[in-house]
Specification:
Helices cover 30% and strands 33% of the residues. By secondary structure, the chain is an alpha+beta fold. A hairpin with a 3-residue loop joins β13 and β14 (189-192). The structure holds thymidine-5'-phosphate (TMP) and aspartic acid.
């Protein structure tokens, strides 16, 4: 299939979406922008769009092979991939295996403390409110999703956690936490959308617990490019 890149439909902080000749499919172009804290911290990093496009292609391709429906169809250039056109749910599902980031702030427990079981949390995608955390009941009350949908998000999040945790472990990486977004293809087919990259995961090198993700940028730790390239190398090896 020869894909035609049409008009730009959407521009986010890290990606742009374009129409194709088929309304069911879009071109997703990864940008070189790095942002954190809802865009309050911003930078350009040449190459980052390519690295993330290739990392998300590899991981979503693997999830597809394992029977988890994702929006990923094929990589068409260094920084572009074809994705299914989903009707997105305005939630971020965060899966956590180890205490870090905002959970460290909330609990006061040291970063790196393993959780006795994996946790799924939901955040409402509302830029103007900095994506507040949402309880199960509040998601139902505001009719963002119903019981059946939430149960499906929970199950799919834990399934991806199992698959991605094992995939990263084989590559010497600890999957600390990550974020997923869900949508529906053709109305009712639950599908993982957005991206799975060092922007949206916490990935620690198992050997020395060095951070290989966007926390290097958020916390000004340096060697951001090296970390993303290291993840790309491990994922594509
Ligand atoms: P947190 O500890 O800041 O809540 O982040 C949890 C995980 O979710 C971490 O892997 C980074 C990812 N994440 C996003 O992908 N987008 C976001 O906007 C935020 C806040 C976190
Ligand atoms: N995704 C958010 C941003 O781009 C927050 C973050 O990842 O820290 O600003």
């Amino acid at each position: 299939m020869k894909w035609e890149k049409g008009e730009m439909l959407y521009e986010g902080k890290a990606k742009r979406l374009y129409a194709t000749q088929d309304p069911d499919y879009l071109v997703c172009e990864f940008k070189d922008s790095l942002t954190a804290f809802n865009g309050k911290l911003k930078a350009e990093l040449a190459g980052k769009g390519e690295w993330n496009n290739r990392i998300s292609s590899a991981i979503m391709g693997y999830l597809n092979e394992q029977g988890v429906a994702t929006h990923f169809v094929e990589q068409i250039s260094q920084s572009e991939q074809i994705v299914k056109n989903l009707k997105m749910v305005p939630l971020e599902a965060v899966v956590r295996n180890v205490i870090a980031g905002s959970l460290h702030k909330r609990t006061g427990m040291p970063e790196g403390t393993p959780l006795s079981r994996s946790v799924v949390e939901y955040f409402w995608k509302k830029d103007e409110l900095d994506d507040p955390m949402m309880s199960h009941d509040l998601i139902l009350a505001l009719e963002i999703a119903d019981e059946e949908q939430l149960a499906a998000f929970h199950e799919a999040s834990l399934r991806v956690n199992d698959l991605l945790g094992a995939y990263m472990a084989e590559r010497g990486i600890l999957l600390v936490d990550f974020k997923l977004e869900f949508g529906y293809f053709h109305g009712d087919d639950l599908t993982v959308g957005d991206e799975v990259t060092p922007d949206t995961c916490r990935l620690w090198n198992k050997k020395d617990m060095v951070k290989l993700d966007k926390d290097r940028f958020r916390r000004k730790l340096g060697n951001v490019a090296e970390a993303y390239q290291e993840v790309l190398t491990r994922v594509t090896a």
